[in-house]
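User: What would this chain look like folded?
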Amino acid sequence: MKTWQMHELGDPWDVLRLDEVDPLVAAPGMVVVAVEAADLNFADILQCQGSYQVQMPTPFTPGMSGGGTIIAVGDNVDLAIGQRVLGMASGTSGWFGEQAVLAAKDVTVIPDGVETRTAVAMHVTYGTSWFALHRRGNLQPGETVLVLAAAGGVGSSAVQMAKAHGCRVIAAAGGPDKMQVCRDLGADVAIDYRNEDLYERVMSETDRRGVDVVYDPVGGDYFDVARRLVAWEGRLLVVGFASGSIPAAPANHVLVKNYSVVGVHMGGYRGVDPAPFTQCYDEVYQLLLDGKIDPLVSEIVGMAELPRALKDLFDRKTTGRIVFDPRL
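Assistant: Here's the prediction, encoded as structure tokens.
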């Protein structure tokens, strides 16, 4: 089978290599899946560069999340060949190839009536936003939410999830095209933080009160602005560091404004307490089937286009999700 592999750490668009390898084998407790779709995540790039919190030994096939049809099952697995599933890859056999390996205990069965590409496009992003807004952020209807990088993968999901919960959403992104994407997603206010003063604009839109919740997948300099925009008893959700810079929160400011800085690590629940995943995806899929959310997929790429698509993601040229389909 064909698969992209990292034989050395580095920028994936430079060092990924398309290899022909033996078909994968399902060890006990594992399943092998024929890949139909995989979503491109910024974390995939970090893992290839060796800067993600979970490091992989080389060679490995990147691609943390995806979905497809089970083609082999190991011992002690209560799943069947032919079922459509999705989830996080296990070990070094990731999703950026024709086959991937998953731990059976961690898979989610794709509901009937939901396309595999749609399920994959929403799995990580909407799952992250559910854990951020509901499990960690205790979001309440009527609250005001500021979403940074709101036209991106997790940002676009947060806009839709917060709107579906009855909240007012202020979306911040860079450039007029992304502003329109935010409006199309349902944002009440769209701010171009490349060309506008984010602090002053948000304060103006909230009568100088600030926002109840900040959803921050960016980090870096925007974190310092965002923390000053949190209202009394608000919550600043630390979702990720797409900027590449990890910020620090001054404890005196947290104390004086009486707000919470809340970490959001969805993947960490797998090893600590996986029970919330059932509630998460039950609720997310119901929102999808009810038409209250609609994952934004901006591009579907085939095998040959994957390195270029990862570079576009790194350069912030994308909106919503890019989905990889090795059959193209």
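The longest strand covers residues 30-39. If you want, I can go into more detail on any region.
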